[in-house]
Request: fold
Amino acid sequence: MASSSLLRERSKALPKLLSRLSLLRPMGGGPRTFPGGLNKWQYKRMHEKMARQKERRLLQQEKQLYQARLRSEIRAKLSGKASRDAADSSSSSIGGYGPMSSKDHIKALADRFMKQGAEDLWNEDDGPIRSAPQKRPTDPAPPIDLRKLVIDRRNLMEDRVGESRSSLASFDQRRQYSIAAGRKLRPGSKPRWKQNSSSEEDSDSESGFNLEGDATKMYRETKLGVKKHSRFSRFSIRSEEDFEEELDEVGGRIARKKMMSGAALGNYDVKTERRVPRPVEERGNFAKEIEEIRCELRNRDSYRNDARHHGAQEETLLTKTRFDECSISPLTIRALADARYVQMTVVQEAALPVCLEGKDALVKAKTGTGKSVAFLLPAIEAVLKATTNTLNQRVLPINVLVLCPTRELAIQIAAETNVLLKYHDGIGVQTLIGGTRFKLDQKRLDSNPCQIIVATPGRLLDHIDNKSGFSARLMGLKLLILDEADHLLDLGFRKDIEKIVDSVPRQRQSLLFSATIPKEVRRVSQLVLKKDHVFVDTVGLAGVDTPIKVLQSCFVASHELHFHLVYHLLKEHIMHEPDYKVIVFCTTAMVTAFMYVLLRDLKMNVREMHSRKPQLYRSRISEEFRESKNIILVTSDVSARGVNYPDVTLVIQVGIPSAREQYIHRLGRTGRVGKAGKGILLLAPWEEYFMDDVNGLPIEKSQLPELDLDMKQKVEDSIEKIDPSIKEAAYHAWLGYYNSIHEIGRDKTMLADLANRFCHSIGIDKPPALFRKTALKMGLKGIAGIRIRK
Ligand SMILES: Nc1ncnc2c1ncn2[C@@H]1O[C@H](COP(=O)(O)OP(=O)(O)OP(=O)(O)O)[C@@H](O)[C@H]1O
Reply:
């Protein structure tokens, strides 16, 4: 018995032994298996990938060291310490100023990373973040400086005079937007396409980043307060630092000028420029002046509202500048004319000169104002320029990469590119987006090589990592574009963007576009942009971020009434708008699914779109909604940004948007290209705090309408009929969404209570149970009102 079982064991072990031996076989002939059951090629590719990753890691470290060193040198130079250090240390000096001692270098690095707000520049490899030293609580609050208040008031008066001028200018049909640039245009100078030939001096100053030249020039210009004007006198041109400072100054003027990036130069970038107070006798009665200041401040808001009101009538989108005035290919101009694009929009007029010049730019313009064309034209020019140099290359390089946050947006931009490429036979564009088969992408790339790729970050990284030869093609990249840049630089996408930026050449032009650019994004934009990039802002600090012709209102009602209200508002709108086209935004995919089923049951012509739907379905619905009238699209945030559905008459947002920016983008699906539109925000009473986040936007709080009893009953009957699994999924999704919102998610007991109220509103009495793991992850285990699955 024993010997037979031994025999059986041995016979089992034999195949394993043989497979191990096969690894040791000499090279040549016959199939071989490698550890993990990989074949030879998979094994080889795995090793190549690992080697690439290692190389990338090393490069990254080296890059960081280099950049840190460079920053230290700049800092040392600006503080004048370098020469002393050079004298102290025996090491050689570069260009007249020596490197810092290692001690100073470490101190400088610490300064730079410990600066408040530098967390975004922190890298995993840099080690843990420590908070900046806090101000001691015992520090007495600074006394109110009455003199400063009076001086501030004078500045306020100046601002007001400036504003009334600009408002007059707007009556004069002139747009106001600002370009914050490292290089400034001279008074009366023309944009590139208007100049016969650029002077040598100009091209010298633009070539490369001359540390000394640029910094000194910027300093001189900022210090002297030089404001230069281009041919487009309506552009106010400011250095980026001016702009940053202005942002900081909103709450009251600070007599300081910041130079270079605060995060990069530590304290050395702060120049103190004292305002000289006027002698006392000149100042008159302080008390009276202070009272006037108060009055001024009170009036200021109403004055701005007035200006906005007038602006609403005056805002025009198209400028007098025509596309054929700018130096783009005649073939593109023909295509533009075919698409009936003759005059430029404001953002195109402002951004094209900068982008065509080859400068890095961060561009902010309202939703629906033609940003896509503003970056696609330079994209085509970049390909044309690159093609002349790459005619004989065996592999066709990818010259332009456009990154978008959503698949629908990528498809739309590729379609728009094709419109502009109508007469360019040799140039192609392709999309790389999730939700399609990877193999199909590969086939398309091989059979139909293209120079322009429009991609979502995840799928692009798949190709970089897994498609042999793709990274090599990316080495020909000349222009990187981030559409909806603030979203792409958000935490959700940032890591992917960092990886993509690491996979493309450093010598490239980068353009970032969005309708919203929060301050924090301006800081991290340096992940992609060069330091001397240009900031083109067609909205301006005093401007409103939303289209002026869109009427915005807000209803506050308890959850139980939300679905009834949505139905009522839709009915009303349909009655008054024969060609209605409505988008209803919900907080999550599953809440969207619930809303869709409800409205469908209420016999509305409704479609649904969210991330849980297959890509083919999403594309079909997107196309149908674009082409149709008298239709309602219920959607999650997949449709919030960039997608251009023409003639949307109403946007309803149910529940709080994830951020102010998201509110603006969702609203921007209506009122495109200067058209009129309507936006309604529907909040529960406890969500009303969001109104502070959208402070400054012209949203009017509206009275709740009387709800018809029959209609109420109808909605309740429909809710009753909805499948319990849809309701359950909606509850779970709702809980997840609000848990992730800081203001609500931090008080778990309250969250559970609110979730129960939502539960009632969708017709469930008892909240559905959560998986133990999910509850743990969400920090909801053991919270009253949260049920856990047994
Ligand atoms: N010069 C032009 N003349 C007329 N129409 C234009 C012009 N440029 C763009 N458009 C139209 O403007 C509409 C909006 O353009 P686009 O989608 O590029 O806006 P956007 O600024 O990118 O909006 P969002 O911020 O929502 O992404 C499109 O329908 C486009 O066809």
Observations:
- The longest strand covers residues 550-556.
- Residues 341, 344-345, 348, 365, 367-373, 515, 642, 644, 668, 672-673 surround adenosine-5'-triphosphate (CB under 6 Å).
